Amino acid sequence: MIAAVLAGTLVVFGYLVVIWWLDRYEREPFWMTLLVFAWGGFGGTSMGCLCSMPFVFGATAAGGEVAGEVVGAVIVAPVVEEITKGLAFVFLLLTRHLDNETDGLIYGAATGLGFAAVENIMYAVSFAGEGTETVLVLVAVRTLFSAIVHCISSGILGMSIGFACHRSGAARWVLWPAVGLALAIGNHALWNGIATAMEFEVLGEASALLAPLGMLIVAAAAAGMFGLTQWSLFREHRVIRKYLLEEAARGVLPVEHASIVPFWSRRSRRGWLPPHVPQQAYIRAATLLAFRHHQLEVARGERRERYLAEIAALRANVQRMLHGIPAAA
Of 50, 244, 286, 288, which is the most exposed, with the fewest CB atoms less than 10 Å away? Predict the structure, then answer.
């Protein structure tokens, strides 16, 4: 049983590493990704349990044990858990760790996977008395499907927050997070609804057909999320290329760099920079310079002044590195 739990947890952590790696252009610090993962695992699960209890107890008191289980799984858990996992974004927004929707997706996936990893352990402990085979099947199903559901749901919410954070107008903090949260809850509730219908054999003998249906839905959602990730990365590529071409026209960097930095494979090669230029620091500064230009384009008010100051500082860093002067901190 311990081996099964460890294997399931390691697989979930493997999901995290792969998703973090996908952010090719400007990866977030892995320690921050781990911190968000830990929030989902410990903060999200503990707050989720505490906040769910009154509603589940109320539904049980009003309609009986079955009603309590159904309401808890299909309504309460999706709403409460997506909100508690999403609280990680309060910290991320305050510390300005979101540059775009890709960052939001990565951090959302991290908090969802953290929740799933600890939930795996909780379920394994709860069902330990049912025997090793039951625990093995439970952990396998939760690792292959439930963890993906948590990952996708929180990733959708994170993507919407990442999209909103550099837009203009107060309404963006209502509209986009609300859309993301609704989609996250809906995705979570759909999976829980299918699992609950199977448990209580709502469709009689046909309930067995719900298992492949649920797997297909999770697979389709995962494919859709992968597609969104690639779309977001493609948008990043276009933003980097567009604004670095503008910076090259200003003489800030060589024009050929605008055809190298936006391409992950090209920028990874050696030899396109002079030996005195620190490659990773230069790539990061140039990439952030492009991102700040894009954020300036969609922002208004006092944030424009902040972005203009950051653009000036990043531009100066790029030029210092190219001229062999240590970049400013």
Answer: 50
Q: CA 31 to CA 46: how far, in whole Å?
A: 22
For 276, residues 6+ apart whose C-beta sits below 8 A from its C-beta are: 324
The distance of Cα 31 from the centroid of its chain, to the nearest Å, equals 15
Evaluate whether residue 232 is within a structural domain.
Answer: no
Determine the average pLDDT of the residues in 218-241: 90
Q: How far apart are CA 98 and CA 33, in angstroms?
A: 12
- pLDDT band for position 190 (50/70/90)? very high
pLDDT band for position 185 (50/70/90)? very high
Is residue 216 domain-resident?
A: no
Q: Which two tokens stand for residue 216?
A: 């297909």
The CA distances from residue 216 to 220, 221, 222, in Å, are 6, 8, 10
Distances (CA, A) of 108 to 35, 134, 153, 162, 216: 12, 30, 8, 10, 22
Place of tokens 């044990």: 65
The answer on 243 and 194 residing in a single domain is: no
Residue 257 in any domain: the answer is: yes
Say if residue 196 is in the same domain as residue 245. Answer: no
Look up residue 327 and give its DSSP letter. P
- Residue 329: the pLDDT is 46
**For residue 218, is it within any domain?**
no
Above 90 in pLDDT, residue 113?
yes
What is the distance between the alpha carbons of residues 118 and 114, in angstroms, rounded to a whole number? 6
Q: Which DSSP category does 278 fall into? A: -
Angle at CA 298, nearest 5°, toward 294 and 303?
A: 95
86 and 150 in contact (C-beta within 8 Å)?
no
Q: What is the pLDDT of residue 257?
A: 96
The SS3 of residue 35 is helix
pTM: 0.88
